Amino acid sequence: MGIAKGSFGVVLAALCLLAAVEGWLALAHPLARLPVATIEQGEAFNSIADIKKDTGNCKDEPYVVLLGSSLMVAPVVQAESQFRKRPLKRFFERRATLCESQLGSQLNRLYGKSKSAPVRIYNAAVGGGMASDDFFVARELLQSKKVPAALVCGVAPRDFQDNLVPGTYSTSAFQVFADLSDLGRIFQDKNLSQEKKFDVALGRFSRLWRNRSEVKSYFGLLSKKTIEKVCPFILFEKYGPNLVLARQKKGVFPEEVHGTPMAYPGYAIDHYDSVKTTQQYVRSYHPVSKKMVDEQFAYFEQMLDMSRAKNVDLMVVNMPLSRANKELIPAEYYADYLNRLKTACAARDIQFIDYNNAAWDENSNFIDTVHISPEKSLAFVETLMKAVADSPLSLALSSENKRQIGSKHINTN
User: Fold this and answer.
1) What residues of the chain score a pLDDT lower than 50?
2) Cβ contacts of residue 115 below 8 Å, gap of 6+?
């Protein structure tokens, strides 16, 4: 009996310690300060944290959120950096003041200066994001204390079909924002092993489990640095000044990270060259996985329904791609993709705009066949904001209709 009581005490103490560690991780966010890559240093976590912090300080001002992948990130961030005439911390500075300026001018044109309320715009798009990530990010904002007045979601064929993504559970947005209610769809996946399902489920309960690889990487880095100090020999590979990985005394360990990605005025954000980008997209598009496409469209339609339920206006934008990239897309897949987009939006009376057309698809408009160049970013932002102003979304943004935020089909004439 004494042993049983002692064992119970040990288990109880271990559970209390685990709860304390979990609470510390949730409140203090120590993983955001580690010198290795972590989820809390990523774009999804920090962009939403920045948006929530900023919108919490504005009382009655409506705000718009831009969703999507790096196809939305690139033009908005590049143009914003040029507009502010200074470098931007891409993951942390998410307010799009150029978009605000452009939209404000367009709303003044429609409603007059006296009837146009100031509108804040934030960029919540995530590099490499899928349609499921748009859903998770949108839900996080739509469930926040201050709900956005409107959403603008940029989509592209890769957002629904990407063989380089193991599954919905593997994306940063899922890791950061998914909750227990999202496990049902994961458990229905017959291709996932029971071990993987257990892993994903436990990650929804425990931050420590979810971030165990980052913690392991951190202690591995500490071990390397300790060994290096006491060992007279060169044992470890590092990146030197020429960014070549080789055994050397000075340099940066592969798992070591410092700083945050930046955007500079007049320069493109970080990207691969056209050859490597093309190689990646060939793998992303071929072969088409009907299972993945159906799953991503299910998340997409769930986002549309959720926006309607919250009375938040939504615009869906088919983002521009270069002719070179469009040639890589299986014709049958693109036709099905476009038809499903239009059908889903039309069934819910949601604004749909198609920019993947001859007006934008010149190869010279893109830095790597998929991301709009810095030179064309301002023109894209201007075009997009004019479309927002000319759409039903503007009703949610004019001071005359502030009481109707999120409502549709209101004739102000």
Assistant:
1) 1, 401-413
2) 398, 399, 400
